[in-house]
Amino acid sequence: MVSWRVWVGGLCLAAMFAACSGKSQAGKDDVGRAGGAAGETGDGGTTQTTGAAGDPGAGGVSVSANATGTGITTASSVTTTGSAVSGTIGSVTGSFTTGISSTTGGVEVPGDWRCLGLAYGNGYCDCGCGAPDPDCTSDDVEACDTCNVFGGCNRGPCPGKIDPDDISQCTPPPDGWTCTPEAYFDQSTCNCGCGVVDADCASDDPSECDACNSTGSCSAGICPGAIDPDDNTSCFMPEGYLCPGYTYGNGICDCGCGVLDRDCASESRDECDSCTHGCSMDACPGPIDPDDNTICTGVPYAWTCADRFYGDGRLCHCGCGALDPDCASRDGDACDRCAFEGSCSRQECPGTIDPDNNASCERPAPPDGWTCDWYYYGDGSSCDCGCGVVDIDCRSNSIDECSSCGACGSYRCPGRVDPDDIGSCAPPPDDWTCSDYTYADGYSCDCGCHAPDPDCDSALPSACTNCSPGNGSCVDDYSCRGLDPDDNSRCTDSAPETWDCDIETYGDGACDCGCGVRDLDCEDGTIGACEFCNVAGSCSDDACPGSIDEEDNAVCVE
Hints:
The protein is largely without helices or strands. Helix content is 3%, strand content 10%. It contains one helix and 15 strands, in the order αβββββββββββββββ. A three-stranded mixed beta sheet has the order 1-3-2, covered by helices on one side. Strands 4-5 form a two-stranded antiparallel ribbon. It has a two-stranded antiparallel sheet with strand order 6-7. Strand 2 and strand 3 form a beta hairpin. The termini are far apart.
């Protein structure tokens, strides 16, 4: 017995396919109307809700739009009050997968097909689907039967914005359009604040607007939102508005903003929905004037500089998160002071002050030579050092300005930052034998590296946290045993400071001569003990005996 859910679902699916096709399908659009009158014989298996039971149906309804009717005959497949229904109904088969969709005919759907898989090769020319439909008899728009199949680029009837040169695509929005491409000329909605007049709008008059907060619109609220009263392609913010621009006309009455928000019905404090962008740290009302909700009775919550600078009647302080009442305008040209504690600009005016909103800063593009990630340059929060170029967040080239030194492998500043050029990293000392990155890394006191690590609190072995023979330390194991008790950069058998040859050659098992100090490996100080007389750093250029002193093999004869 065929379930009534299958019967109803089959009719609905057949109806959907017929509706999507855009054409009347002879013998297909009449699905669901083939049953006989109540109490009479049904000739198409249609449900009858009243009357006596009908005789067996003559055949099943076959759904032909990308489906196959199986013609399954049923008897009394649906029972309702006073009647039983008999007839046949087709079954729908098929599958859809990303890239390839197969139907009962084995039709393969291209991977760039964006519309319903069942619409491909269904006998009707579907356009704007990302790939050509084999049902289209030509490349002309006139060949299109449907232009608004679900998933396609056009939302309205043909021809809409179907590209006349490629009917599988839509013509792109004009340059300057900031909202989603599908929103342009969707043949239903006048989208505003999108940088260009929508073709669905009769003009640029804001009264035409249907939607003012579409994705990509400059307005965040429902119409009129922040749409310019003279141009529905752009947004408007009145002179003197102190809160962030996106709060104007966003559907929320923001208070303490210096100018009445379009969303506020009056200047009464009772109208306020939000006060945190203007005056208050807490919920409304905060320090809002009860009779004029545009006015703060105290320093705005958004103000990041010292309170005494706000409205001091003397200077226009900029980069403080909120507009100083002492500023003649929001423009960067109005600033008197830019580089001070609390300001986002570390340089004197104009510094990094936003030229259109002097309460905030803009992030400049890093200059040539900047080696750190771009977002560190001029981020307004830290003076990043060792990045190839002095960060604009550094007030000077003094190493005392550095607050981030990771570019030089240093967890703490100054680390290996060059004290004479904070944009560069200084190399470890020449006699440092451990890996470069361990020197002044800010993490550990590395010992036995033949030069003191600035990370060590003292020169005693007790200060050591890392002794790695595999990393260049002179110790035999990682326990830090064998260090000089007065100098943790050396071992008791390390080359003395006056050793002139390579450090690795001291005590390496071979007697090296001419190195300024007798090698630990030499049995005595005579020339006869020498095995090598011209290693790098030796006073002798020739092999033994070279110019080595016969009685003191640490030096050469003059």
